[in-house]
Amino acid sequence: EDQVTQSPEALRLQEGESSSLNCSYTVSGLRGLFWYRQDPGKGPEFLFTLYSAGEEKEKERLKATLTKKESFLHITAPKPEDSATYLCAVARITSGTYKYIFGTGTRLKVLA
Amino acid sequence: DAGVIQSPRHEVTEMGQEVTLRCKPISGHNSLFWYRQTMMRGLELLIYFNNNVPIDDSGMPEDRFSAKMPNASFSTLKIQPSEPRDSAVYFCASSLGWGRENTEAFFGQGTRLTVV
């Protein structure tokens, strides 16, 4: 059964304190692993797509990496505006199209 | 493109009433998804369409829920009759649905449903 597990559920960091969020997955026929950011009262906002083990993507203070079983979202020197819930999702092919399965997210709070 | 557009943004209704949520996907996207988000269960996939055809509705919780996609630019999710446990935020998302790149899904702002 397809499964996506994120840890930790919640994380509090001081401004400038780097850390990593984890997303472990089991899925048959992975067609992509995605990271989203969700602010309160808004829809998930797309950040990155990773397609194969060893791939890395960067955007400002965020860097996403992928292995065969998990992905990490590294946050370097975070700022209070990085506070949000970060969601991980995987996609696989079903009936000729992509199906997306989401984890429950990591709630990140960065303190000034 | 304006992105995925959902309406209404907020809906408060009484138990037993019919509720209809609406979604306009991104132009050119072939796949459309309806999700429900709660604190307890996170984002749950309810149903998704490819080229206007329902592919998988196994996530629809009960027969009270139904979804349609009459054309490539419009979809509805209907709950009839509504119950307090249906209170949640409902998201619509769309994606290209094919190809080896640009496979990500884009979300609307959601509809916050409260059933009293």
Q: Explain this structure to me?
A:
The complex is a heterodimer of chains A (about 110) and B (about 120). By secondary structure, chain A is mainly beta. Helix content of chain A is about 0%, strand content about 65%. Chain A has strands at about 5, 10-15, 20-25, 30-40, 45-50, 55-60, 60-65, 70-75, 85-95, 95-100, 105-110. In chain A, the strands form 2 sheets. In chain A, strands 2, 4, 5, 9, 10 and 11 form a 6-stranded mixed β-sheet that branches. In chain A, strands 1-3-8-7-6 form a 5-stranded antiparallel β-sheet, with no helix packed on it. The relative contact order of chain A is 0.33. Chain B is mainly β and about 120 residues long. Chain B has no helices and 11 strands. The interface between A and B is medium-sized, with 26 and 29 residues.
Average pLDDT number of chain A: 94
- Calculate Rg of chain A over CA atoms: 14 Å
Q: What is the H/E order of chain A?
A: EEEEEEEEEEE
Overall number of strands of chain B: 11
Helix content of chain B: under 10%
Shape of chain B: globular
Overall pLDDT of chain B = 93
What is the helix tally of chain B? 0
- Which structural class is indicated by helix and strand composition of chain B? mainly beta
Give the SSE string of chain B.
EEEEEEEEEEE
Question: What is the first-to-last residue Cα distance of chain B?
Answer: 36 Å
Poorly predicted regions of chain A are: none
Question: Could you outline the blueprint of secondary structure elements for this entry?
Answer:
The complex is a heterodimer of chains A (112) and B (116).
Chain A: E1 3-7, E2 10-14, E3 19-26, E4 30-38, E5 45-50, E6 56-59, E7 62-66, E8 70-75, E9 84-94, E10 97-102, E11 106-111
Parallel strand pairs in A: 2-11
Antiparallel strand pairs in A: 1-3, 3-8, 4-5, 4-9, 6-7, 7-8, 9-10, 9-11
Chain B: E1 5-7, E2 10-13, E3 19-24, E4 31-38, E5 42-50, E6 53-56, E7 65-71, E8 74-79, E9 88-95, E10 106-107, E11 111-115
Parallel strand pairs in B: 2-11
Antiparallel strand pairs in B: 1-3, 3-8, 4-5, 4-9, 5-6, 7-8, 9-10, 9-11
